[in-house]
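Reopening this one. Same input as before:
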Amino acid sequence: MSAKILVVDDELLVKRLIGQYFRKKVAQREYEFIFANNGKEALEQIQTHPDIDLVLSDINMPEMDGITLLSKLRNSNYNFRTVVVSAYGDMKNIRQAMNQGAFDFINKPIDFQDLEITIIRTLDFVQSLKDVQSMLQQAELQMIQNEKMSAIGKMLAGIAYEINNPVCFISGNLHEAEAAIQDISHHLRLYQQNFANLIPEIQQHSEEIDVEYLLEELPKMLASMKVGSERLRLLSTSLCNFSRADNTNKLDVNIHEGIESTLMILRHRLKGNEKRPAIEVIREYGDLPLIHCYPGSLYQVFMNIITNAIDALNEASVYRPYTEMETHPYQIRIKTEVLESENAAIIRIHDNGIGMSNEVKERIFEHSFTTKPLGKGTGLGLSISRQIIEEKHRGCLSCHSTPSEGSEFVIQIPLVF
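Same output, byte for byte:
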């Protein structure tokens, strides 16, 4: 990426000399020069090119001089630095320029070797400043994310606790109710077998409540309630697993349980709706050992990637008829295996959506980059996911995608680290 330099000078000869001296760096795309005749034009160029790295400005210019330009830039949030050019010995203007925030100065007539050294030094400073700002942003982002995940973890743990108590009560009573109904059904059958001639009142009531139907359907009702109770139990377990935001201690965990917990929480988003049929989840689980990791953070990565896959399939469904999607359904394929050569666990999460262009794929892990509409995405999920995998787990997170063929995210985690 080339450094962008704004030259502010009303002398045409200076612009030509700069273009000639730095022509090789311009050809090699190390530098890109933009020109303005005075401070007023410079402000317009800065608005048009907010990614400028350095401003090289003369002091004496018509309409708006360099000192006035510096005063207008002094309280701005731009990352660039300004180097002023002044006549040799004009210390008054140079001192005034430095007081207004100039980073450095050179004298006229310009010594182009000195100018090149000054530009390199200034650009190095600007890059260092950008690096520090990026580190501070990442640290702030991680702190906010940790606080957010901690709050979510506590909330999920509380919800799981509130669900778990009544579920245990229901599940325990269902077992007893099933045994009781079996006994009562057996008792009624004995009555029917031994007292064929029932009094009219009992016979009428038996017909009104349809005893035969109830005896046949009650076991089915109980079985359905047991299924619902078990689903609630699994949801409670999933919430508990996902809420484990212990980021200070590594634990030995079953990766497949973490994936299943994530899928359980996202189950409602996988269901079919009026826009598309249900998304199929295909599991190809290998024989993985327990992985020594930070479970809360790792499950967060699963959540980010699978959520993005669902979003991608929802977006793709806009372009396909419903009947076609029924014939060729959307799928999320999750495959796990041990890569013996790397002594690592591999988790592949693939969707058969519309895929990504090369331009998007190259930027997918960038901080704040998102293809989602305003308000729908922050561009932080994948950036944080890569940080979790590569920095916290010393692993690797990569993306493979081809337009019209879907996308695959590959997580590689060392078995021992």
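So the earlier flakiness isn't reproducible anymore. For the record, The chain has three domains: 3-110, 133-245, 247-417.
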